[in-house]
Write a structure and sequence with these properties.
alpha/beta, Rossmann fold, five-stranded parallel sheet, 4 helices, globular
Length: 156
């Protein structure tokens, strides 16, 4: 199985690389290898590597800074997942899109369920919600999975 991992230099990407089972061919891409702000680069990576899976662990994660850099946040968090999904629809792969609880407004006071409507309050949440929507619209639940997390922690 061939897996394209984005965000290889980030906390999640590094942890996934350590946990990689032996039979997987892992193509690990950090910022230097793959510019997530470029939809063309994302599409080309899928077409070149033809992965069975893309694990999109890369993201624009500066929540507060996203308000002053909305174009970059939207390009990385919405444009890249859309480009991956579109290319995978053509080449036959699957996508794991890592997202966030910032797609919700935080007012509920108890855990959100996966099917609940999103209502992001800022650019970061909006960008992640748009990425989720693009992935699910282009690939559907059979070929994609959205994983929302509220926090990452670990040894790395």
């Amino acid at each position: 199985m061939r897996v394209l991992l984005t965000g290889a230099n980030g906390q999640l990407g590094q942890a996934l690389m350590v946990a990689k089972p032996k039979p997987i061919e892992l193509i690990a891409c950090g910022r230097a290898e793959l510019d997530l702000a470029s939809p063309q680069a994302c599409s080309e990576a899928v077409r070149f590597y033809r992965p069975d899976w893309v694990l999109n662990a890369g993201a624009y994660t500066a929540v507060d800074k996203a308000e002053s850099e909305p174009e970059l946040a939207l390009a990385v968090n919405a444009g890249a997942p859309a480009a991956f999904a579109e290319a995978l629809a053509a080449t036959g792969g699957r996508l794991l899109q890592v997202s966030t609880d910032f797609v919700f407004n935080g007012a509920q006071g108890f855990p959100y369920l996966p099917h609940q409507a999103v209502e992001p309050l800022g650019i970061y949440g909006i960008s992640k919600a748009r990425g989720e929507a693009a992935v699910l619209e282009l690939l559907g639940p059979q070929l994609s999975c959205v994983l929302r997390t509220s926090w990452l922690y670990g040894p790395i």
